[in-house]
Amino acid sequence: MRRSAVTGVGVVAPGGVNREAFWERITSGETATRNITFFDPSGFRSQIAAEADFDPQEAGLNDQETNRMDRYVQFAVAAALEAVNDAGLDLGEVDGERLAVTLGSAVGGTMILERDYVVVSNHGEKWLVDHEYASPFLYHALVPSTLASEVALKFGARGPSVVVSTGCTSGIDGIGYGHQLIQDGEADIVISGASETGISPISMACFDPIKATSRRNDDAAHASRPFDRDRDGFVMGEGAAILVLEDFEAAQARGAHIYCEVAGYANRGNAYHMTGLRPDGAEMAEAILDAMSQGGIEPEDIDYINAHGSGTKQNDRHETAAYKRSLGDQAYKIPISSIKSMIGHSLGGIGAVEMAACALAIDRGVVPPTANWENPDPECDLDYTPREAKRRQIDAALSTGSGFGGFQSAMILARPKELEEVGI
Amino acid sequence: MAQKPESFTSIPDPDRRAVITGIGVVAPGGIGNDTWWSYAKSGQSAIRRISRFDPSQYPVQLAGEVDGFDAGDYIDQRLIVQTDHWTHMALAATQLALDDAKYDPEGKDPYRMSVITASGSGGNEFGQKEIENLWGKGPIFVGAYQSIAWFYAATTGQIAIKYGMKGPCGVICQEGAGGLEALWHSRRNIQRGVDFVVSGGTEAPIGPYALTCQLTNGRLSLEDEPDDAYRPFDERANGYVIGEGGAIVIVEEAGHAKKRTAPQVYAEILGYGATNDAFDPKRVNGDGSQLVRAMKMALERAGVAAGDVDVVFADAAGVPEADRAEAAAINEVFDRDVPVTAPKTMTGRLYGGGAPLDVAAAVFAMRDGVLPPTINVDSPAEGCALNFVTKAQEGPVDTVLLNARGFGGFNSSIVLRKPQ
């Protein structure tokens, strides 16, 4: 069966917007969470977020693209430009008909939808809104498929293109979709990943009433505390990441730098509750075991786990249980971390950002830390790599995601066997 | 030694075939398969003045609405208040489809059942109510269900929870093309070990803010009379009419359907092709060359010659430039006499629900040997001469090709074949 090589990585994240700034941030242990500056958050329960200082023109977008695209689309295009460049692909040489786009996003164009809503409704005054006040690209914001169509346009991708919108697992699922297209021979190269920009009043307001987000508003830098006893919810983030996936043999033949390959991808649902998780982690464990089984990966082979680690009480407990259930005693020996401690939780985008972190961790031999981890929680008793990065050879990294709808996803990236042998 | 997954390892097995064994229609013209199919064959339009809100102030007055739909007939009150109209229609269609397939998910292996639906615009009516609360009154007036009702995954998640389906789930966004991709993605998952998939989708785009958004795409008909409005391929084509609802399609592994003696196997999903125009976003769906490629890919994967296709279900954009591109594409792939139909001329375009509703019409056409008609193509526009089915037409229907396109250059074609 055809295998997928990761040959390019591009990232837009809080605290430095390109791949290297992102890597520097997540290995430094310094947090990018702060009091919200995008709008006045007074009146909200959670008033903190990890915001990206992003300039679309600096990232390579032209004036029309900047005007037409919502922020989440801009992020994806910027990350894709970086990833395609990193992969050393010459778009003039690539067969556009075999180039696919598979991207995730949970809430899509909500920023423009909300901005225009405020105008056409005159600040929430009218149900029958005034359509004459709508901006010209508002339909692009309504349909999240715009994310894929804009990236396809930018890179001349005439193969399959799709947006996968499975809530907070969209990022892993977007890359997993691309992996399946390569496996099945539907594409040779895939621009895969995800993007989300949910730091807006309506997105923040969604999570207030269900108390999912942190209200440590007086200490934003230390608010995202995955696996720590005193965690009180996630901190909203924004971000995008793109992995260029290529048919493994083709990537090898053209002498591409291969970060790693997709050794396994699986997704399951808990069929239990839209937002609630059973404490046993059974379905996430099942997804992990499926992903391991695809790649012939044993628990001893996994050198790093990049956790969903959102910092909500129930998630971190659920995930800890899933690791024990799927990996047995080995769960206690594998370094785990949640980079959400530093860059927040960008909903549908974060899964791809975390896969980018795994690809870089394998390539560079570093386990990023969990910032703000100070106090052990008896229900979360694994090694969460507190506060400081660790050097370690990583041949296989597992990343997990969990989200509303009960979706649970797992992906394993691994150093290809043939590259190990020649000592790369 | 590592544990193995208790369900399956997701490695594709090309011998696992995907068949359609159940349909549940909730669409303009009728709720339930028989009611809707009778309507679709009648050639009457279900498009009329919008009743979900007062459209007087808008340039668009028309839509295809699902008359007489009461969510309470299918789901309990607690769930109704937590979900959007879009999800209500999907949950109703799911129950109808499960009944049609005579399948009770209770007690079945949960990991081998999946939900993969298409969505164009999510729970936008629910979302408008809550964003009105936010901006009109303040953050604390936003309800607890906004976070789970509005997002595009709400329908897939709610179906999975209601029926205890724990297999790989999916939510496909490709505007009008998503429904076909969802079916093919169901097949991808069936090849990887799933036995039973609730697929297809619905859409609920008829709200004041959603309409405002749609108006900016420049493709909606502004005519006030139903017969003047949505006239794809006709010389008076002037845009399309929006519609709500759709269909849930049960996709099942062929051996699984056989083993449980499913009441019917409507069709096998044989081939599929997806492309993107990657074209100027201010223009409409390229020149049709990528649609040609999607159709040819679907035929090639299916191992079916163009001459063996009994009918083409057209995407029928209703926008002159896009109609010409599709007509040219169909003429390039097929002989001039292949019957072409677009029953969506009676319902309007249903986005994520549109292609699944076409699939419903296609499998009923195969079952009964009757092609549903296209209305309002009185005088084909230049370059749009095709062999349109303008009245319900009897004859064997074994192999069908369906086209679906989405705003943003998405082209999808799928080939279905009646079991021999």
Helix and strand arrangement:
The complex is a heterodimer of chains A (424) and B (420).
Chain A: E1 4-12, H1 19-28, E2 33-35, E3 48-50, H2 63-68, H3 71-86, E4 99-104, H4 110-120, H5 138-142, H6 146-155, E5 161-164, H7 170-183, E6 189-197, H8 201-207, E7 236-247, H9 248-253, E8 260-269, H10 282-295, E9 304-306, H11 313-327, E10 336-337, H12 340-343, H13 347-364, E11 366-367, E12 390-391, E13 396-403, E14 407-414, H14 417-421
Parallel strand pairs in A: 3-7, 4-5, 4-6, 9-10, 9-13
Antiparallel strand pairs in A: 1-7, 1-8, 2-3, 6-7, 8-14, 11-12, 13-14
Chain B: E1 18-27, E2 30-31, H1 33-42, E3 47-49, E4 62-64, H2 77-80, H3 85-101, E5 113-118, H4 124-136, H5 146-149, H6 154-163, E6 170-173, H7 178-191, E7 196-203, H8 208-215, H9 226-229, E8 245-253, H10 254-259, E9 267-276, H11 289-302, E10 311-313, H12 320-333, E11 339-341, H13 354-368, E12 370-371, E13 387-388, E14 393-394, E15 399-406, E16 410-417
Parallel strand pairs in B: 5-6, 5-7, 10-11, 10-15, 11-13
Antiparallel strand pairs in B: 1-2, 1-8, 1-9, 3-4, 7-8, 9-16, 12-14, 15-16
Helix pairs in contact in B: 3-6, 11-12
